[in-house]
Design goal:
Elements (H helix, E strand, L loop, with lengths): L2 H19 L5 H6 L5 E8 L3 E2 L3 H9 L6 E4 L6 E2 L4 E8 H31 L6 E3 L9 H11 L12 E3 L1 H7 L2 H11 L6 E5 L2 H9 L4 E5 L3 H11 L4 E5 L7 H5 L5 E3 L2 H4 L6 E8 L7
Parallel strand pairs: 6-11, 7-8, 8-9, 9-10, 10-11
Antiparallel strand pairs: 1-5, 1-12, 2-4, 3-5
Helix pairs in contact: 3-4, 4-5, 6-7, 8-9
């Protein structure tokens, strides 16, 4: 997916999120603010981690008030500490009040994933292995969550089912075996597309090598079994380790000699980075121009 297409997709989801939160009116805000008033509010980190999603945060408010702007005191991908002032959001006070929760939801989620990714990627330094994400993302959040992985120092696996061929156990069962599945994939796909095969045993590793798979995914293998699989493959395919990978064992998986380590926990289990909008201040006595 091109960056332009991704931006279009992201904006569509932002609009849907705002529509979910404001079906007809923001009753609370309409009760206390009857007209446009310029205002400013502080964006504060309540925990330490990696900031990610500043553009998304700002754009959320701009969809309510096109004049909204974020004064950034940190850059995308910077690490922040608890209590740090991250930026100041300036807009119509009504936009700040109405967009707060949606904007923070995105920023907190993306920053949490970037933080988790940064910590896990650090564990792989010196191994030669690349940390990649998976499709285990929150529905309709993939474009944001995969960007957060990238900002955190990871690499994106295929974006969706249209992006590449990964033959998992059920595909293999449907085709009648690894050899038949790879042959069918080669017949269907352009030659420029790589074919990846998921395996669980050393016998399946041998089948995948014989079938000339481009990438072999070692699923839920122990480190000793992965090392033996790497020996059997002997450079004839790229190798990905996958399955129950976390901070405690990601380096051990990489040290088995694989090229990639994929981790679903980056997106399905990363805690948010707590951030808050505080100290809203009205800037003038009149309306916005």
């Amino acid at each position: 997916m091109s960056p332009t297409t991704m931006a279009v997709v992201a904006e569509r989801y932002l609009r849907l999120a705002l529509e979910e939160d404001i079906t007809s009116e923001d009753a609370s805000t309409e009760s206390v603010m009857h007209e446009a008033r310029a205002a400013q509010v502080d964006l504060i980190a309540k925990g330490g981690g990696v900031i990610c999603g500043l553009d998304v945060f700002e754009r959320t408010f701009q969809l309510i008030d096109p004049t909204a702007r974020l004064e950034r005191l940190v850059a995308e991908g910077d690490e922040v500490r608890s209590g740090q002032l991250v930026g100041r959001m300036c807009a119509d006070a009504r936009a700040l009040l109405s967009g707060e929760r949606v904007a923070l939801n995105y920023l907190q989620r993306m920053s949490g994933i970037a933080t988790c990714t940064r910590r896990m990627a650090a564990e792989l330094r010196g191994t030669g292995a690349t940390l990649v994400d998976t499709r285990k993302t929150t529905p309709c959040m993939r474009v944001f969550e995969k960007e957060a992985v990238r900002v955190g120092g990871g690499t994106n696996h295929r974006y969706n089912l249209s992006d590449g061929i990964l033959l998992k156990d059920n595909h293999i069962d449907a085709a009648g075996g690894i050899g038949a599945a790879v042959a069918a994939a080669r017949a269907h796909a352009p030659f420029v597309r790589k074919v990846e095969v998921e395996v669980e045993t050393l016998d399946q590793v041998r089948e995948a090598v014989e079938a000339d798979a481009d990438i072999i995914m070692l699923d839920n293998m122990t480190p000793p079994l992965m090392r033996e699989a790497v020996r059997l493959i002997d450079g004839r395919a790229q190798i990905e380790a996958s399955g129950n990978v976390g901070l405690a064992n990601v380096r051990e998986a990489a040290e088995a000699g694989v090229d990639f380590v994929s981790c679903g926990a980056l997106t399905h289990s990363a805690p948010i980075l707590d951030l808050s909008m505080k100290h809203l201040r009205l800037l003038d006595a009149g309306g916005l121009s």
